[in-house]
Amino acid sequence: MDYKKLDKTTLIEYLSNIAKIKSYFGSDDLIAQEIGDGNLNYVYKISSVQNPQKALIVKQAVPYLRCVGEEFPLGRERMTYEIRALQKFYNILPSFIPNLYHTSEDMSLVVMEYLGNHVIMRKGLMDGVKYKNFSEHISTYMSAMLFYTSSLYLCSSEKRVIIAQFNSNMELCKLTEDLVFSFAFMEHETNDNANVKNNPEAQKLFADMEFKEKVLELKYRFMTQGDALLHGDLHTGSIMINENETYVIDPEFAFVGPFGFDIGALLANLVNNYIYHVVVTKDEDFQNWLLVTIKEVMEKFRDKFLNFWSEHKESALLVEGYLDNETLVRYKEKFVKNIIKESIGFAGCKMARRVYGVAGVEEIRGIEDKNLRAEAEKMALKIAREFVINYEKINSVDEILEIVKNAG
Ligand code: ADP
Ligand code: SR1
Ligand code: MG
Fold this sequence. Notes:
Blueprint: H1 8-15, H2 19-25, E1 30-34, E2 42-48, E3 55-60, E4 64-65, E5 69-73, H3 78-92, E6 100-104, E7 109-113, E8 119-120, H4 121-126, H5 134-148, H6 156-166, H7 170-181, H8 193-196, H9 200-206, H10 209-224, E9 228-230, E10 239-241, E11 246-248, E12 255-257, H11 260-281, H12 284-311, H13 325-356, H14 362-365, H15 370-390, H16 397-406
Antiparallel strand pairs: 1-2, 2-3, 3-7, 4-5, 6-7, 8-10, 9-12, 10-11
Magnesium ion binds next to loops.
């Protein structure tokens, strides 16, 4: 079928020809509602009129960037990578990924389970909801996805197949290279220029060559390091959650990149949320919960990753018997320590890009009071700078927490 952008009416017509969808809804009448709040695509909820709790999600990519409009062309092939990544991640850990009912690369479209009992995690965190299982869940997700798509588990040819499947996701990788590592740290038309103009903090950032040189180091890692299949945009807006379950959605930025990038994205977003609770709600109990959560996420990730590794002795990287046991244990410890260090550097870039770059986060860009927003921005930049400058020297999760706490 040739690509066609669907609307609320044509969507229902399209779905009526798909056997699996027909069997899900039976003979019910369907209604479509646009619910997308992301930057890139159209997301519809399709529900049964007779039985409204029966619902599915349809997500379709359009050949431009939705939040800007048709004047910003962006290949709809991004949905091909999202479909491939959803399938790959589902095969590794199905309980974290919505069920897929139908996919079409031609139509750049996916039909998936409606997560009606879950909320976007960013919103929940802003409302001060504590998710007690989150650190357990997300550390399992990150350690499994990274380990099982890396050369620490796969054999050489399997790893190269994954690279071939994902590393042509050129446009979205370029978007990250530009938006996360470059434009947000210089004068650029895509920035939040109403805030940049006459803002001494923005000028200070743009002139901070020590910071920018370190950012280049991290950008180079992003562009050249092919460690594992990444989600590529693992912020709290890509997580749907409730007390018992955690789902990861929206992997359209997936590619084979550095181990630390997804962990860094998550860390950055938890810290941004902490800043919101320092500056806006002043809820100390929730701030403490976030700090404990950050510590648990990082430490559990480390332990689980090492645990997976201990279960698999042969891989593209390691041949059994190559190292003696003592050397192997030391090698692995150092390896994972370096992943954590790298993730701190990426977290710094990710935090700083949200201050003046396009697509800010609600916790900071959404603060209406000008003075409070400036305070939050300053705090974010202070933490981000320390993360980026010192990431290779940070040796423990407690040091991360000290940097965060001391910035308030
Ligand atoms: P984009 O790629 O445009 O960022 P997302 O995949 O992030 O789109 O989806 C946009 C929004 O649609 C999400 O923030 C969420 O509110 C809603 N959404 C997406 N997938 C689901 C789902 N499976 N169940 C319920 N809501 C969803
Ligand atoms: C213009 S697209 C901006 C951002 O939205 C996505 O969620 C990614 O984070 C991207 O950088
Ligand atoms: Mg998206």
